[in-house]
Design goal:
The structure holds two protein chains of two kinds.
Chain A: E1 2-10, H1 15-30, E2 34-39, H2 59-67, H3 85-96, H4 102-111, E3 115-119, H5 120-126, E4 138-140, H6 142-151, E5 152-157
Parallel strand pairs in A: 1-2, 1-5, 2-3, 3-4
Chain B: E1 3-8, H1 15-26, E2 32-37, H2 42-53, E3 56-63, E4 66-72
Classes of the chains: A alpha/beta, B alpha+beta.
Chain lengths: ~160, ~70
């Protein structure tokens, strides 16, 4: 086990939870840790590109794609979302208090060398294609996650 | 040995330690970093950060809502 390694599973696609995941990941990287984040199920929506990308999809995949938020800027809150109004209010307050936006946190994570891994099985289930996700990701499955979790001394499920 | 000043005032967690980490990577062993922060969590965070990264906290003071820390890179 390596006390300098941390792994995070990002299962949720809620704005607040995604922010918590990235704040912890960036903090860990700034402590000199090697950090891997595994994005699965709704967490994949955090990594979607904000623009529409043309892809070949089945009817259900396309429907899923339309119903899920397209990227970090369109996520809702886990509580008090009120159809997106809560998320807007939260973003307004965060801006006032100079808290980094989720997009900025993702950029910082990338600059600090945080590994971001998209779960290919979840991508398949939800009909998300590689070209719909942001650049700089790795694509892997559960064995990769388990391999890295085995070596790390902190593993979070968010 | 050089001394570097970092203005991290106004940054929220984890901004200050991220900035400090980046600056320490850019300087050499023995260099002193002087950082000013307004995020109140930094007061405790800096000790944990120094312990984990193996750097030395030379001084920590607070005044007027600003926390000042001097760190020696090891």
């Amino acid at each position: 086990m390596n006390a300098n390694k941390k792994t995070v599973i990002v299962f949720s696609g809620d704005l607040d939870r995604a922010m918590a995941a990235f704040i912890i990941a960036n903090g860990a990287a700034a402590m000199g840790n090697e950090v891997s984040m595994f994005f699965t199920f709704w967490g994949l929506n955090i990594l979607r590109r904000p623009d529409k990308v043309k892809t070949q999809k089945s009817f259900l995949e396309a429907l899923f794609g339309r119903m899920m938020p397209r990227g970090a800027e369109r996520l809702g809150l886990s509580r008090m979302n009120f159809g997106g109004l809560g998320a807007l209010m939260m973003k307004y307050i965060m801006k006032q208090k100079k808290v980094n936006t989720l997009r900025e946190l993702i950029e910082t994570a990338r600059a600090l060398g945080v590994k971001m891994i998209a779960c290919t099985m979840s991508m398949d289930v939800m009909g998300l294609k590689k070209e719909e996700l942001i650049d700089g990701l790795e694509f892997a499955g559960v064995a990769t996650y388990l391999g890295e979790a085995d070596e790390s001394n902190v593993n979070l499920f968010i | 040995m050089t001394e570097k000043f970092i203005n991290a005032k106004g940054l929220q967690c984890p901004g200050p330690i991220v900035q400090l980490f980046r600056e320490t990577q850019a300087c050499s062993k023995g260099d002193i970093l002087c950082i000013e922060v307004t995020d109140q969590g930094f007061k405790k965070d800096i000790a944990a950060w120094c312990k984990k990264t193996g750097n030395e906290l030379l001084s920590l003071e607070e005044g007027g809502g600003v926390i000042k820390a001097r760190i020696k890179k090891n």
